[in-house]
């Protein structure tokens, strides 16, 4: 338990006076809950948690906090595992964006949507239902709870990303609260009397606030570019003997720009991932697949095939790749599927397309994968590389983990790996499973009924520390191979890998926008002077 200092106690009273008691949490249970993310625990408890409902409330709260000398830490859906929303001092206020969840405007004529930063990706998709439109990147696998602001702050990729890149490629402008409480809008929406229809027209100020982890400002809204929803969709999967074969197929498919999204996984992921195992979820899944079919008869036929296939066939292959292909019409889809099928068969064998089909039938379910199949704790690590480096990176990754096999066995750590292509980048994500306590974050996100069988599992700080050691060594390996990690936060190497003039420029921008270093201090390795009061 951390005790609050006098300025923090005074601030809580003033925040409640300005925003209302329901918008400010300062009880011990809430402060303890907001001191943990998916992996790092326990952290430093903040002085208070602010839950604004309007951008003006967010601005007022940040202005009061920084004027009192307290830092401000942004939080979205809570799916981070890189210390992105964890305070580095007790004199901090966490700003939870989830009540900033309005759809501001859907402009079908000019092809953009403006949403508040606390909207989940599931809410964005629902707002566009029936319009024939969507954003190019349209959410992470955790889009049931992950927010637009969180994705913009830490960067994000999955649905739509193989063809269209990360979430940053879809952004036209953002509205942010700066450290002094001022509201700033970037892109054409920041001009007088102009719609937010373009990002261009001067320096790209929007880019400053993408991937910044809230170190430069607190996002309250964003405008995203829309596109016509592809009319034809196909599903295809392949099995491979090695990650090298799978990666070779992926890097050859990437330039075609016909795969919307896809991922490759090893057999261990199939055995331990709750997400993969939940794909076959009985009658409910059959109904989902039936509704996703081209018609009732076709849908029911697909459902029967999915149920018959199950997931057992995945274990017959060391690695499997699962792809969604999109096209403007059926003829184009046929051509694209033939091209993808030809590449996949050169390196592996075609298998049942159960996984991508069911994944698309209900893209935004509860993020069950944040725990393993049997309640194991889970945390990943990642980097992206040029396509030309993919095979070398896979070889280096295999060699690295071969030397750590005894270490992982000794600590009871299970290793698995996933690969994707994101635009013209190769994405590599190892993940680790181990026995450890279930936190309130897991319970609140997944539901007490889900975690009840493992709720009494004791903390395993020794293995958790071993996982942290393994992750850090992996980060250093990938940085040494020229990799780039998106969700830098307070976890990945960042300032250490920047060229000195580049770091100096970033620090100058930080000082200009946040001269006292109170916007998420420590994020990106910037302006951190942590203090702890116990």
From TrEMBL:
InterPro entries: FAD-bd_oxidored_4_C, FAD-bd_PCMH, FAD-bd_PCMH-like_sf, FAD-bd_PCMH_sub2, FAD-linked_Oxase-like_C, Oxid_FAD_bind_N, Vanillyl_alc_oxidase_C-sub2. Residues 42-229 form the FAD-binding PCMH-type domain. The lineage of its organism: Bacteria, Pseudomonadati, Pseudomonadota, Alphaproteobacteria, Hyphomicrobiales. Its EC number is 1.1.2.4. GO terms for molecular function: D-lactate dehydrogenase (cytochrome) activity; D-lactate dehydrogenase (NAD+) activity; FAD binding. Belongs to the FAD-binding oxidoreductase/transferase type 4 family. Coiled coil: none annotated. Keywords: FAD, Flavoprotein, Oxidoreductase, Transit peptide. This is D-lactate dehydrogenase (cytochrome). Its cofactor is FAD. It comes from the Bacteria. SUPFAM superfamilies: FAD-binding/transporter-associated domain-like, FAD-linked oxidases, C-terminal domain. One of its GO terms (biological process) is lactate catabolic process.
């Amino acid at each position: 338990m951390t005790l609050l200092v006098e300025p923090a106690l005074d601030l809580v009273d003033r925040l409640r006076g300005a925003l209302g008691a329901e918008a400010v949490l300062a009880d011990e249970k809430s402060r303890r809950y907001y001191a943990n993310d998916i992996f790092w625990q326990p952290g430093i408890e903040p002085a208070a948690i602010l839950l604004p409902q309007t951008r003006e409330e967010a601005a007022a709260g940040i202005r009061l906090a920084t004027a009192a000398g307290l830092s401000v830490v942004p939080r979205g859906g809570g799916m981070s595992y890189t210390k992105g929303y964890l305070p580095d001092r007790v004199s901090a206020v966490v700003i939870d964006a989830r009540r900033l969840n309005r759809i501001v405007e859907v402009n079908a004529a000019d092809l953009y949507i403006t949403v508040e930063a606390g909207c989940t990706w599931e809410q964005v998709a629902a707002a566009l239902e029936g319009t024939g439109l969507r954003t190019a990147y349209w959410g992470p696998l955790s889009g049931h709870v992950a927010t637009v602001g969180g994705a913009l702050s830490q960067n994000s990729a999955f649905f739509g990303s193989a063809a269209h890149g990360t979430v940053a490629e879809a952004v036209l402008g953002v509205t942010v609260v700066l450290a002094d409480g001022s509201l700033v809008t970037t892109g054409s929406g920041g001009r007088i009397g102009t719609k937010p229809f373009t990002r261009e027209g001067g320096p790209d100020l929007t880019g400053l606030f993408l991937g910044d982890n809230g170190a430069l400002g607190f996002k309250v809204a964003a405008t995203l570019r829309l596109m016509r929803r592809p009319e034809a969709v196909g599903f295809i999967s392949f099995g491979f003997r090695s990650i090298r074969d799978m990666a070779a197929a992926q890097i050859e498919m990437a330039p075609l720009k016909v795969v919307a999204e896809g991922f490759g996984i090893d057999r261990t992921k199939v055995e331990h991932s709750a997400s993969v195992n939940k794909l076959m979820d009985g009658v409910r899944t059959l109904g989902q697949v039936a509704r996703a079919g081209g018609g009732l008869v076709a849908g029911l036929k697909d459902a029967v095939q999915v149920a018959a296939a199950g997931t057992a066939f995945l274990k017959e292959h060391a690695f499997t790749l699962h792809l969604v292909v999109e096209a403007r019409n059926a003829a184009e889809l046929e051509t694209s599927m033939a091209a993808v099928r030809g590449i996949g068969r050169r390196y592996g064998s075609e298998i049942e397309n159960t996984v991508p089909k069911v994944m698309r039938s209900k893209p935004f379910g509860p993020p069950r994968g944040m725990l393993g199949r049997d309640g194991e704790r889970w945390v990943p690590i990642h980097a992206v590389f040029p396509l030309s480096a993919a095979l070398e990176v896979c070889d280096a990754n295999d060699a690295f983990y071969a030397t750590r096999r005894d270490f992982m066995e000794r600590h009871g750590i299970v290793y698995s790996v996933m690969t994707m292509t994101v635009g013209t980048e190769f994405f590599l994500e190892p993940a680790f499973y181990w026995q450890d306590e279930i936190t309130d974050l897991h319970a609140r996100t997944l539901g007490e009924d889900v975690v009840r069988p493992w709720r009494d599992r004791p903390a395993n700080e020794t293995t958790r520390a071993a996982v942290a050691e393994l992750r850090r060594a992996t980060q250093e390996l990938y940085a040494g191979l020229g990799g780039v990690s998106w969700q830098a936060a307070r976890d990945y190497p960042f300032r250490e890998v920047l060229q000195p003039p580049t770091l100096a420029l970033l620090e100058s921008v930080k000082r200009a926008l946040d001269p006292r270093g109170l916007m998420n201090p420590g994020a990106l390795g910037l302006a951190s002077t942590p203090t702890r009061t116990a």
